[in-house]
Amino acid sequence: MTRAVRITTSVQPGYASAVRRVDYVIRFVRDLDRSVAFYRDVLGLTPRIFGEGYVEFDVENLKFGLYAREKLPELIGPDSHKTGPEGEVVFVVRDVDSWSERVREAGIQVVSGPTDRPWGHRTLHVADPDGLIVEFAQEIPRTDPD
Asked: What angle do CA 62, 64, 66 make, to 5 degrees?
């Protein structure tokens, strides 16, 4: 049984809704090199960030990235790369920890987080009723990988 959860807009005053914006669309791909070639060579997108298992493209209205499926266990837990989700939607929020409390109080299972990521986000992952991964991301300072 799916139940609706209402999250009030008072969480983040000054915004029309409780989340600030859709910031990223990230596809979880089986063959990162092949997918990068498609988006770069066929669609003409310019890669702007290369990370371990991640490539982000230069687009104007949001961030579009590809994430290697074999790296999913590091992001959202073991065995997720075998039959897990195809992608995620990322909402930038002011306070990931308050979102963690809210979703847990609403009975939503947290997939991972909150976790500080070296690319400059504190993240929380949950699954929507259809299994799509929803990430809440708070902007934090980037860290240099050793």
From this structure: 165
For the stretch 72-84, pLDDT in tens is 888 888 766 666 6
H/E stretch holding 83 reads: helix 80-83
CATH code for the domain of 130: 3.10.180.10
Provide the β-strand partners of residue 87. 27
Query: Quick check: 46 and 55 in contact, CB under 8 A?
Result: no
Backbone angles phi, psi at 23, to 5 degrees: -110, -35
pLDDT of res. 81: 61
What mean pLDDT is predicted for residues 25-40?
86
State phi, psi for 121 to the nearest 5 degrees: -135, 145
Grouping H, G, I as helix, E, B as strand and the rest as coil, residue 98 is helix
Q: How many domains does the chain have?
A: 1
Q: Please say whether the beta carbons of 63 and 51 come within 8 A.
A: no
d(CA 127, CA 103): 11
The whole-angstrom separation of Cα 12 and Cα 8 is: 9
